[in-house]
Amino acid sequence: MQAPILHKLYSQNLWLSAQRSLFWEEEKALVVSDLHFGKTGHFRKAGIAVPQSVYKEDLQRLVSLLNHFRPQKLIVVGDFFHSSANTELDWFKRWRESFSSLQIILVRGNHDILNDQWYAGAAIDVVYPTLQSGPFLFSHDQCDVNGPLYSFCGHIHPGVVIHGLGKQSLRFPCFYFAEEHCILPAFSKFTGAVGMDKSPAQAIYAVVENELVKIK
Questions:
Q1: Cα(23)–Cα(13) distance, rounded to whole angstroms?
Q2: CB-side exposure of 71: number of CA atoms within 13 Å?
Q3: Integer Cα distance of 152 and 80 in angstroms
Q4: In this predicted model, what pLDDT tens digit does every residue of 138-173 receive, in sequence order?
Q5: Nearest to 13, CA basis, from 2, 26, 4, 28
Q6: 177: alpha, beta or left, given left = phi > 0 and alpha = psi -120 to 50?
Q7: Tens digit of pLDDT for each residue in 178-207?
Q8: Which of 11, 29, 57, 186 has the lowest tally of Cβ within 10 angstroms?
Q9: Domain ranges (residues) in the chain
Q10: What domain of life is recorded for the organism (predicted)?
Q11: Whole-angstrom distance, CA of residue 193 vs CA of residue 12
Q12: Can you tell me the distance from the alpha carbon of 113 to that of 29, in angstroms, rounded to the nearest whole number?
């Protein structure tokens, strides 16, 4: 795994990973967005043959990040889960038991529709619409929150287009740092990516295979 890249913001050390996560050193918090756990199971229930290996790979990447950074808390900036409960979420609950000491905070997203009892049973603290911590504000889909705090959001699944020789181009997920907010990449690989305008960004880090590439 590529070594994390340090991005300093508001005197805080943020370690960006090609595994689509951010480790906030001062708070010992791993920050991720748009995991969409259960999405592959949801598609299979609808008759679309999406392999379970997609979900297992995402879950294993999360395990690897937790083992690497050893955070005290996991902050999920929305869309932790994709829809109603299914077998994959039962697996998640068993996984949760292996990390019982980890505090999990979910900033509820539009796909987080499970009932309160389910979240309580999985020891997940749910907040809505925002979470304030230190100099930062976390919100699933409100990236333009006005105020003194720098905001982190998800929802959009940001991407950046990289041009090659001739007319070749590819779009990659990215961390998109603007002046007053950062849009986090979707953690799940079972998502698309929306092309972002590079010009207003302060910094952009593209996730290219298993490496981060600073574009701006």
A1: 8
A2: 26
A3: 15
A4: 999 988 776 789 999 999 999 998 876 666 778 899
A5: 26
A6: beta
A7: 999 999 999 988 677 788 899 999 999 999
A8: 11
A9: 5-214
A10: Bacteria
A11: 27
A12: 24
